[in-house]
Amino acid sequence: MFRRRESVPFSFVAEADRFRSNVTPPPRRRATRSQLAAHSLVGLTLIAGFAGSLLFGLPALDTDRTPSHGQTSEASQHR
Fold first, then answer.
1. Structure pTM?
2. Sign of CA dihedral 62, 63, 64, 66
3. Alpha-carbon span 79 to 77, nearest angstrom
4. What keyword terms does UniProt attach to this protein (predicted)?
5. Helix (H) or strand (E) holding 15
6. Alpha-carbon separation of residue 57 from 21, 48, 52, 62 (angstroms)
7. From 54's CA, which of 3, 27, 60, 69 has a CA 20 to 30 Å away?
8. Eight-state DSSP code of residue 60
């Protein structure tokens, strides 16, 4: 009926905080010029896409403008 709690040694967790490895990771490889150019090109393409979407999207979202030419359907003219 009653479960007996077993003691679990958690001392390894406390020791893990104090443990320092003497193995250093290898140095990061530097990007080549072609990789830097490719990353720059992708970034510029994304920025140009966002700028283009703003350029073409903002006039469509403008609600203060009234249409410069009268848009009436033929059905409303022949009532």
1. 0.47
2. positive
3. 6
4. Membrane, Transmembrane, Transmembrane helix
5. helix 11-18
6. 55, 14, 8, 9
7. 69
8. H
- Note the pLDDT tens digit of each residue in 3-62: 555 565 666 555 555 666 778 888 999 999 999 999 999 999 999 999 999 999 888 888
Q: Which amino acid is at 1?
A: M
Which of 48, 47, 44 has its CA nearest to residue 36? 44
Rounded CA-CA distance 19/15 in Å is: 6
Q: With contact defined as beta carbons under 8 Å apart, do 31 and 39 qualify? A: yes
Q: Amino acid letter at 16?
A: A
Which amino acid does the sequence have at 22? N
Give the span between the Cα atoms of 36 and 50, in whole angstroms. Answer: 21
The two tokens of residue 34 are 């072609």
Digit-coded pLDDT (tens) for 14-27: 555 566 677 888 89
Q: What is the DSSP letter of 71?
A: -
